[in-house]
Amino acid sequence: xxxxxxxxxxxxxxxxxxxxxxxxxxxxxxxxxxxxxxxxxxxxxxxxxxxxxxxxxxxxxxxxxxxxxxxxxxxxxxxxxxxxxxxxxxxxxxxxxxxxxxxxxxxxxxxxxxxxxxxxxxxxxxxxxxxxxxxxxxxxxxxxxxxxxxxxxxxxxxxxxxxxxxxxxxxxxxxxxxxxxxxxxxxxxxxxxxxxxxxxxxxxxxxxxxxxxxxxxxxxxxxxxxxxxxxxxxxxxxxxxxxxxxxxxxxxxxxxxxxxxxxxxxxxxxxxxxxxxxxxxxxxxxxxxxxxxxxxxxxxxxxxxxxxxxxxxxxxxxxxxxxxxxxxxxxxxxxxxxxxxxxxxxxxxxxxxxxxxxxxxxxxxxxxxxxxxxxxxxxxxxxxxxxxxxxxxxxxxxxxxxxxxxxxxxxxxxxxxxxxxxxxxxxxxxxxxxxxxxxxxxxxxxxxxxxxxxxxxxxxxxxxxxxxxxxxxxxxxxxxxxxxxxxxxxxxxxxxxxxxxxxxxxxxxxxxxxxxxxxxxxxxxxxxxxxxxxxxxxxxxxxxxxxxxxxxxxxxxxxxxxxxxxxxxxxx
Length: 572
What we know:
- By secondary structure, the protein is an alpha/beta fold.
- It has 18 helices and 20 strands.
- α3 packs parallel to α4 and α14 runs parallel beside α16 (409-426).
């Protein structure tokens, strides 16, 4: 029976139908739902790994053990997993291994918009790229066939628009292949002559895959008018079809690496004019030009940002349909931390003291926006710890007394541990604040090694942050409640003044976790409120000012009382 299905859910269904038995991932928008949906199938063992490198290594281990496996991550997660990826490409697989990676053109929830297609080319592994949910399901299944036929991991590339849109699919039955016996093979040890021989095999594999790509059904030609030919992939194919319909011909590439050669040359010869429509980098375009095919690409379309039908029309000098306009000016609605967010008190204190704050990746990155403006920069997962160390080595005592690193509990487990180990080992008087909100908040409340629960919510091993930090060499480890502003202020000042490295753990569960109890909302005693707006400085969305008096939104306020600590008149 046909079903309307989210792209990520369709990938999970494809993994299930293909007989995948093990999935190890790290959550990251827009890839998270792949693993969450797969976990609903009892036949698949699913887990959240501490980071993407560990996830890929675990999935590869399951492949060596003879069962089909997968892992999922966002585009920047593939940076973390790149180390094992490049060697696994040489070493090969036993049972099939599929690596799902989701790009984020437009940076809806990412710090950059890199193009993961380059990883396929650099690592010399095949990459499939679906353009809707039906292809997402199909391509996940086909990826295992390619993986096992060519002894290679296969990248399945999603993007935000395909991952988070819905289209019709027709689910099938699950078919589990027999477990592949493990056989000891000394040539799998990647060193010296083994690695050299493996490289030769990889190059031959690429040639074989190019030959296969010429006729495989993952790449298809759809002939319409021959006045214009469009070579495209993923969502760009959908936009092209909607804009041009039968007024163009299409070469739709579902296998984006390695790409066919003769198929492209022949298609271009059948049309009067050929263009390449692709988001982000000129990946297809450069391939076409290497083949000597005359195409237009990035001189027509932007290299930055997400595409749309109207963008394609505009770039091709076609009429753009009139859009709906709202005459009234709408106030900007920048992202903001939730009402009662435990991170708010920490960032208010850091902002008040004008400290240099080396931030990290998570919902607490919103500490950078007004009115707190408390975060100076962020780079990647875990960089706050190692980056602060380097900053303080350059700045000396002047920096050490006025700078902190801020990192969430999940991000700390992901890649902050080695950074603080470096601080303790190489001795900078750096202070790291771990924002322990008992969950992975930014990507939708996934468990992590510090929560004591696994992906399915079952009891699991729990990292003791205080014991771990002490074991890594920190003598000063303090725990604070971020709702207690005076205590937070004093502890931060004490630790910055100390002549040794220190850790501050700000511990309070995320207010959005199911089961977290909230206090009754606060009330404003209007006779005491003088309209000074001191309570507005923390940027809580539950507080506003109207007619010169503070107002509390009862539907948002969770009674954390942080704002009441800022009111000198006892009005809250």
